[in-house]
Amino acid sequence: MLWFNVKAIGAMALFLKSKEGDFAMKKHKYSRDLIKKIRDESSLVDIASNFLSLRRTSGWTRDYIGLCPFHQERHPSFRIVVEKKIFCCYGCGVFGDVFDLALDHQKLC
Fold first, then answer.
1. Phi, psi values for residue 101, rounded to 5°
2. Given 79, 92, 99, 103, which is the most exposed site by the fewest CB atoms within 10 A?
3. Is 43 exposed, middle or buried (0-12, 13-18, 19+ CB in 10 A)?
4. Which domain holds residue 34?
5. Tens digits of per-residue pLDDT, 15-38?
6. What is the DSSP code string of the chain?
């Protein structure tokens, strides 16, 4: 299993969303297979737990919830859906995958 930290994934996401990233995709510097492999093998819960306090939801789902790092709140509205490998916040509307979480977290620092 591959292990990636927040800064590495954030840097790659920032690069891929830039104009040079489009050029790199065309030149196959970062292949779609590599991006898919990172997205599939990285654990969103492990990465988010570096800077968030998460708890597993009760019931049959394998989701995790916590306080959103992108706005102030008292009740948890930030949810990680493990099966789909996405996150969303019902308070501020932020959502995405592992690349979006790392990129948005780096904007806060």
1. -65, -45
2. 92
3. middle
4. 6-108
5. 666 555 554 455 556 677 777 888
6. -----HHHHHHHHHHHTSHHHHHHHHTTSS-HHHHHHHHHHS-HHHHHTTTS-EEEPSSS---EEE--TTS--SS--EEEETTTTEEEETTT--EE-HHHHHHHHHHH-
Distance CA 8, CA 102 (A): 8
Amino acid present at 58: S
**Is the pLDDT assigned to residue 41 strictly greater than 60?**
yes
In a domain, 54, yes or no: yes
What pTM was estimated for this model as a whole?
A: 0.71
What total of structural domains would you count in the chain? 1
Cα 35 to the center of its chain, rounded Å: 13
CA 16-44-68 angle, to 5 degrees, is 95
pLDDT in tens, 64-81: 999 998 899 999 999 999
